[in-house]
Design the sequence.
């Protein structure tokens, strides 16, 4: 079970990711999007989910038991090729329902010190 | 005249989900969880069969929102709950039918409520988007 003290804690991403045009194109093509040079609205998940995974696994949760419960994106600035992104993840809430642990993580994707995209993932760790 | 009028139903679009599409999405997204590709593994963890990544289904609905908005750069908010898995048996093209209703319009934005249906079952709940006009 997640240590309740971790709720509200922000994990600052130590390394940055530079978005490549190939990664945007592959993601867009996989979704059948004709515009392969623009990041689709859900592209941020390719950065945010990996970071959420490392934070939650380090916090003791079993990633093999995870199911995605819900997802939200707030896009202030569309992600584009060449952007350098730092990702900060905050555990916003954690609760146990019927033995399943439900954790919401907010990931802020920062470019030039400003939040380009915020991504909220609610993850259910099955009992 | 704009199609974004409160109460208006936007045209539906159909997307095909199959095993090859799941492999492409796994490679593009980095989510290589075997429940989305390996039938034996999926069944071993209690699933009926291979299921689509929730984010793949949401991504297709995001494509729909981008298409309705005219461009992905107009999408400001997008959210959904993963209520039912999309089961993808081998050799089958599963059809995802996406549609939307306009629920709010201002000078700058429109809010959409989205519906995503597979095999007559809604697979996303509370699916909403805010787009720039």
Sequence:
């Amino acid at each position: 079970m997640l240590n309740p003290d971790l709720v509200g804690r922000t994990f600052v991403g130590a390394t940055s990711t530079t978005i490549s045009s190939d990664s945007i194109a592959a993601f867009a093509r996989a979704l059948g999007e004709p515009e392969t040079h623009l990041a689709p609205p859900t592209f941020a998940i390719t950065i945010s989910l990996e970071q959420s995974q490392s934070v939650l696994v380090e916090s003791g949760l079993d990633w093999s038991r995870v199911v995605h419960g819900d997802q939200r994106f707030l896009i202030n600035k569309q992600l584009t090729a060449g952007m350098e992104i730092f990702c900060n993840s905050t555990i916003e809430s954690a609760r146990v329902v019927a033995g399943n642990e439900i954790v919401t993580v907010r990931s802020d994707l920062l470019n030039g010190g400003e939040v380009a995209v915020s991504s909220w993932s609610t993850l259910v760790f099955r009992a | 005249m704009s199609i974004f009028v409160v109460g208006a139903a936007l045209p539906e679009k159909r997307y095909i989900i199959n095993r090859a599409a799941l492999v492409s999405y796994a490679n593009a997204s980095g989510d290589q969880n075997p429940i989305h590709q390996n039938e034996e593994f999926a069944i071993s963890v209690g699933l009926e069969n291979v299921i689509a990544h929730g984010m793949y289904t949401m991504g297709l609905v995001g494509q729909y929102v981008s298409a309705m908005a005219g461009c992905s750069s107009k999408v400001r908010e997008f959210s959904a709950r993963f209520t039912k898995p999309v089961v993808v048996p081998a050799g089958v093209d599963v059809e995802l039918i996406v549609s939307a209703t306009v629920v709010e319009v201002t000078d700058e934005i429109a809010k959409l409520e989205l519906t995503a249906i597979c095999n007559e079952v809604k697979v996303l709940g509370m699916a909403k988007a805010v787009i720039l006009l």
The first strand of chain A starts at residue 10 and ends at 12. Chain A is about 20% helix and 40% strand. The longest helix of chain A spans residues 45-58. The two ends of chain A are 10 Å apart (CA to CA).
